[in-house]
Structure formats: structure tokens, C-alpha cells
């Protein structure tokens, strides 16, 4: 009884402990200093940002597969670095050969947070950006700087970014349910 009361009080005072630590570490990296004052400022910012932003997160965020989240972060970082070089080569090369296109990418995400991460992912990867989420939330309009095969572009977004986000933030209950259905 006392333990559950203490847990509720702790969660109310520190709503996202891992995010608090992550923000504190990011602050220390940005400050490039591990002095006691910087640690205190980092911890205060790490506590205050999630605490005051809590009203904008109506639902609790669950990470169903943390290992997949780490893999996704690695893949995204790799893609950002690789795409920067590719974009630079195409711009410095022959820009008149670029084939820009707006492509409607159907999405199967249910979580608003996962949709937001997918939209941000397409913006972070140089050479593409998300332009519009459809009102029915079933597709996203993406502008790409150079596309030779729309189907391949859609397949890349769905398999490289959307599928891991679905596993991370929505779990894979739908996948198991589909596997158990017999035609």
C-alpha cells in the first residue's frame, strides 16, 4: 500500500524518468562541460521539460520493443549521413537530371506519436520531406528530390521506417492476429 502510494507520488513528480536523464545528458553534451553547475542545470531542465510538457501527452507512451528502437535510431542516423553525401553529389553534379516528385505513401500506423515520428523521419533524411498527412490519417504526402521508381521509394519508407515504428510504439499484436487467421 505504502509502496504504491510512493510510486504514484514519484510518477507525479518525475513523469518520465528516462527522458529526464536523456535530456540531462544532452544538455551536458551541448554544454561540453561536466561541472556540478551544468549537471544541476541539466537535471533541472530534464525534469522541467517533461513535467511541463505532460499536458501535451494525453496518452502514456509505451515502447514495446526497445531493441528495435535502438536499431531504428542507428538506421536513421546512418541514412541521414548517407543521404547528405548523396544529396551533395547530386546537387554538385548535374542538378538538371534530378527527378523531383510528390508521392502519396499509404501508412498503417494508428499511434499519433508514431505518425509524427514517421513524418519527422522523412524530413530528417536529406532529399525528402513530408508535406501533408491526409485527413483520414491513412497516407502521407512526401516530396522527394530525386525519384526514379515510386514503388521502390514507397517500399523503402514502409519497410525501413514505418514497420519498425509500428513494432516500437504499437506492438506487433496485429501481426500475430493476422498469422492466426486461417483463410
Tell me the layout of helices and strands:
Blueprint: H1 2-13, H2 17-31, H3 36-53, H4 66-92, E1 101-106, H5 112-124, E2 128-133, E3 139-144, H6 150-170, H7 173-180
Helix pairs in contact: 2-3, 4-6, 5-6
Structure explained in plain terms:
The chain has 183 residues and is mostly helical. It is 62% helix and 10% strand. The protein has 2 domains: 55 residues, no CATH class; 115 residues, no CATH class. The protein has a 3-stranded antiparallel beta sheet with strand order 1-3-2, with helices on one face. A hairpin with a 5-residue loop joins β2 and β3. The C terminus is likely disordered.
Short description:
The chain is mainly alpha-helical.
List descriptors.
183 residues, mainly alpha, 2 domains, three-stranded antiparallel β-sheet, 3 strands, 62% helix, disordered C terminus
Structural class: mainly alpha
Annotation field: number of helices: 7
Distance between the termini: 49 Å
Q: Oligomer, anyone?
A: single chain
On the 0 to 100 scale, the average pLDDT is 85
Order of helices and strands: HHHHEHEEHH
- How much beta, percentage-wise? 5-15%
- For the report, how would you describe the main beta sheet? 3 strands, antiparallel
Poorly predicted regions are 174-183
As a percent range, the share of helical residues equals: 55-70%
Q: Output the strand order for the largest sheet.
A: 1-3-2
Rg: 20 Å
- What form results from the Cα inertia axes? globular
Instruction: Count every beta strand, where a strand is a DSSP E run of 2 or more residues.
Output: 3
Amino acid at each position: 500500500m505504502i509502496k504504491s502510494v510512493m510510486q504514484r507520488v514519484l510518477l507525479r513528480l518525475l513523469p518520465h524518468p528516462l527522458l529526464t536523464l536523456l535530456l540531462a545528458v544532452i544538455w551536458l553534451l551541448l554544454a561540453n562541460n561536466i561541472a556540478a553547475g551544468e549537471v544541476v542545470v541539466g537535471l533541472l531542465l530534464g525534469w522541467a521539460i517533461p513535467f511541463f510538457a505532460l499536458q501535451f501527452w494525453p496518452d502514456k507512451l509505451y515502447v514495446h520493443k526497445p531493441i528495435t528502437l535502438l536499431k531504428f535510431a542507428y538506421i536513421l542516423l546512418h541514412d541521414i549521413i548517407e543521404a547528405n553525401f548523396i544529396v551533395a553529389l547530386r546537387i554538385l553534379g548535374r542538378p538538371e537530371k534530378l527527378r523531383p516528385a510528390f508521392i502519396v505513401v499509404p501508412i498503417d500506423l494508428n499511434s499519433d506519436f508514431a505518425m509524427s515520428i514517421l513524418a519527422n523521419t522523412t524530413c530528417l533524411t536529406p532529399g525528402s520531406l513530408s508535406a501533408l498527412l491526409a485527413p483520414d490519417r491513412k497516407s502521407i504526402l512526401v516530396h522527394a528530390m530525386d525519384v526514379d521508381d515510386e514503388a521502390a521509394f514507397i517500399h523503402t519508407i514502409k519497410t525501413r521506417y514505418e514497420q519498425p515504428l509500428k513494432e516500437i510504439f504499437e506492438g506487433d499484436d496485429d501481426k500475430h492476429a493476422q498469422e492466426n487467421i486461417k483463410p
